[in-house]
Amino acid sequence: MQNLEQGKQNKTNFDPSLVTGWGVDADPNNDPTYPMKRHTGMEHDGYSWDRPPQQEAEVEVLHSSERPNLAATFGETIPPAGVSGMIRRAAFTFSENSYGHWLPLMLADRVQMVEGMVTDLATGKVPNLWKELGYNAEWKYNRKGLITKLAIFGGLAVGLGMLLSRSKDSTSSNN
Amino acid sequence: MLAMNYRGPRRVRVDQKPEPQIKHPQDAIVRVTRACICGSDLHLYNGSVPDTRIGSTFGHETVGYVEEVGPEVQNLKPGDHVLVPFNIACGKCVFCRQQLYGNCHESNPQATAVGGIFGYSHTAGGYDGGQAEYVRVPYADVGPMKVPEWMDDDTAVMLTDVTPTGYQAAEMGGIQKGDTVCVFGAGPVGIMAARCAWLFGAGRVIVIDHIDYRLEFAKNWCPAEVYNYEEIGDVVQFMKETTDWIGADVCIDAVGAEATGRVGQTLLGKKMHLLAGAATALQWAINSARKGGVISIVGVYGPVGALVPIGNMVNKGLTMRGNQASVKRHLPKLVEHIENGILSPKDLITHHIPLEDIADGYKMFSAKLDGMIKPVVVPPRATAH
Prior knowledge:
The structure holds two protein chains of two kinds.
Chain A: H1 4-8, H2 82-91, H3 99-122, H4 129-132, H5 135-141, H6 143-174
Helix pairs in contact in A: 2-3, 5-6
Chain B: E1 2-8, E2 11-16, E3 28-36, H1 41-45, E4 62-69, E5 81-84, E6 87-88, E7 116-117, E8 134-137, E9 145-146, H2 153-157, H3 162-172, E10 180-184, H4 188-199, E11 204-209, H5 212-221, E12 225-228, H6 235-242, E13 248-253, H7 263-271, H8 280-288, E14 289-297, H9 310-316, E15 319-322, H10 327-339, E16 349-354, H11 358-367, E17 374-378
Parallel strand pairs in B: 10-11, 10-13, 11-12, 13-14, 14-15, 16-17
Antiparallel strand pairs in B: 1-2, 3-4, 3-8, 3-17, 4-5, 5-9, 6-7
């Protein structure tokens, strides 16, 4: 069995040139990424290049578990906060290979949407949903479609309201 | 400053935000004069990209004037007119040094599978984008290019993503003289890929979509054979028939995650977000290619798995290539093509949208209203000097 830790560091002592026939058919022009990159073989040296100066993180910046550090530069917009931030922090304990990373991030996005609405209202800003949803444009260029959509949603909302109201009445009479 | 503000799936508005600051010695601050809405922005708009945080400003296709530079920036100075490629590239990592500027390893801490991209979620680095009055541009000596004096803003902004991505889609196809190239998707990138396929010597270029006005544009502008998949029945069978039962030499997926056309893909990939997106175009591409053909992917997908016929990939001996366009690598050649009249990318621009009306711009682009092909956002300070 190979040494797992050495394998993770890509620094095994194994010398592939000792394998019989190694490289006899190597053909740089058959690189499937050619000419998409200027092939140098520098990847074989690992994460060892002369890095740009490191940006100092002034806010919490999460980083992938598949790299050892922050990239030299990054965005500092919208650091994780609130319930969505807790979910994001948990998500980043999983690698990019895992649904445990991506699905919680999607969940956090939806949770933050509610948090954003609450923040808006708490700061006295009532979102103009008609405008934010682009309904001005849809009213101008697709009025029939918009009316149909709103009628369907309206109908569903009324139907759901009636259903809930009937269910409540039924519960009350049973009591 | 005014900036686009994402509030949740299909909800955006314009708000006042603090102006960006120099955060790194190699940063520049650019006053935006043009910023496109890209087809890939629709993945963000629809809430399909994980870690798209509320309050983000989108926009990765930007042109403007340098306002301020960090202490280590040598090639730019305030007042320079620049176009800013969508990818953020350090120029020093092993990938940038191999001209893979779309795969930089020093611009995105949040994910190793994708380099930093302006305004494209925290999965792509957490940078604010250019759909604003100002934008922070990291590694200002590497990515941005000074706009030639003869070039207008509309042409310049089309060099930040659409044109290089379409060009690279054709390049990755390894097109040989006489090849039949099938492009799935008649959005701006698909149209550009079809146009560029000719530059590589294609013998026949086919574009497939279901939006008639876009197909009509592709038919005349590329020019290309165009087919509406809702009218041709089984797309793959049609492709076999139209290629004398062989299949296309090269198939290009210029659609990505938002594809329509197959219920299962749409349900699992677009509605439930359990897959990397609806991989309908990629499925058609794999099944429409001839044995030994090439699949070139520039359509954007999410980070998890997708439903594709991988067995057919193996059994047909296909070569699959994909990447975010290495914009910086392509710019010299593309500028030359534009100067020589070979390409005229600004022809794709159908709408100029004031930044203040960006919610309407997203809705129109997403719902394909008013014949929109490529919308360009114009901030209020665009004309200030």
